[in-house]
Amino acid sequence: MTVCMAPCPIVFDLDGTLIDSAPDIHACVNAVLRQHDHPALTLQQVRSFIGGGVDILWQKIIHALGLPADSQRDLVASFMARYHAATALTRLFPGVTDALGVLADRGHPLGICTNKPLVPTRAILDHFGIASVFSCIVGGDSLPEKKPDPAPLRLAFEQLGADPRSPQGLYVGDSEFDASCAAAVPVPFLIYSRGYRQTPLEKLTWQAQFDDFTALPDLVEAGAPA
What we know:
Largest sheet: 6 strands, parallel
Distance between the termini: 10 Å
Structural class: alpha/beta
Order of helices and strands: EEHHHHEHEHEHEHEEH
Helix content: 40-55%
Number of domains: 2
Number of helices: 9
CATH superfamily of the largest domain: HAD superfamily/HAD-like
CATH architecture of the largest domain: 3-Layer(aba) Sandwich
């Protein structure tokens, strides 16, 4: 790890990294399942399906419940009608606001790269009053590709002023999708260990891991590219 000599761009995942959105997603999923006369899922089941975007979420739900594959279009449409404004049960992880403030005060350009669609992404950032901290927001529908494809993360770094072919920045996330995406760019990856990942930490590639956002600013300064 090298000492950061100048503020580098930092891009964050959203669900499972900055916010615990699983309760809202779970509530929306079960409302849709009830509407279509399907059995409900537990919070843990839904939490384990989060990370790949809405289409993958519903592919996993359909597989878990043994539903017809051709039901996905109607289920996703019903889900999105609720998901666009689902904020009531979502919470920021402890220390997120302060950590973002410290990094912004130190001059780091900050961005979001998430597989969550843009409309609910902007809604939740506005809900918590942190949208203005981020100079760019790349959502799951910003490009045809989604994480772990590196294209969305490269776009986020480009919008923060970095060279998308070789961005001298950091990515902060929580999941297998994030780890693979960072490696594909490539950029150093910092992993929040209390998020939604399903794989043991030792089986993922990361530069540093943390379970408390108060530790993040010092990790950034220790591990950011010079």
